[in-house]
Design a protein that fits this description.
The chain is mainly α and 181 residues long. It has two domains: 81 residues, Arc Repressor Mutant, subunit A (Orthogonal Bundle); 92 residues, no CATH class. Helices cover 74% and strands 7% of the residues. The chain has eight helices and three strands. Strands 1-3-2 form a three-stranded antiparallel β-sheet. α1 crosses α2 and α2 packs across α4. The longest helix has 29 residues. It is extended. The chain starts with a helix and ends with a helix.
């Protein structure tokens, strides 16, 4: 398989972004390749397309499956397994968010709850607990808000995002009205 320059640049960029999304470069490249390839691919095709080892592809497939980003497809009469993205781009973005929440936010909230249960024994601990409480409240708010966003359809999400700075203007207007009262 030979990628065009544009497609190659996209796949390489996905690899660079992989670490920011929570997985390594090769996993990001594999995900990018599968997203832009029209037909499902075998592990050997993925390896050839990215010039990586078959073993590296096998490990990457397991990782992408653990993130629920790819699915296995079978072609009648062919014993090979083929891999394709598991859903739309929006579905995959939601899954990345869900997985990152499970791996990063949930353990942090758990630690914060454990630390906030015990009463502070001195002023330093009291200050630290106040800060941890603010972090906890922020993460809880973001978690609840993101759960609401995930319930929206892609069309509703796009409409919400297009509002963009308009939301800030509405909130500024609300604050001005409240100050006059």
């Amino acid at each position: 398989m030979t990628l065009s320059d544009k497609n190659y640049a996209f796949v390489m960029h996905c690899g660079e972004m992989g670490s920011r999304w929570g997985f390594n470069r090769t996993i990001g490249q594999m995900c990018g390749l599968l997203i832009i390839t029209k037909e499902p691919m075998t592990a050997n095709e993925i390896a050839d397309g990215l010039s990586i080892s078959r073993g590296n592809v096998s490990m990457g497939i397991k990782e992408l499956q653990s993130w629920r980003l790819i699915k296995v497809q079978h072609i009648p009469g062919d014993r090979k397994e083929y891999y394709a993205p598991a859903g739309t781009i929006w579905d995959m973005a939601n899954r990345v968010f869900e997985e990152r929440k499970k791996r990063e936010i949930d353990p942090t909230l758990s630690l914060l709850r454990d630390n906030l249960i015990e009463p502070a024994t001195n002023d330093d601990e009291k200050f630290a607990q106040q800060q941890m409480h603010e972090i906890h409240d922020l993460l809880e708010t973001v978690t609840k808000w993101s759960a609401e966003l995930q319930r929206l359809s892609p069309e509703q999400l796009q409409s919400l995002m297009k509002l963009g700075s308009g939301i800030g203007k509405v909130l500024d207007f609300k604050d001005k009205i409240l100050k006059k009262q």
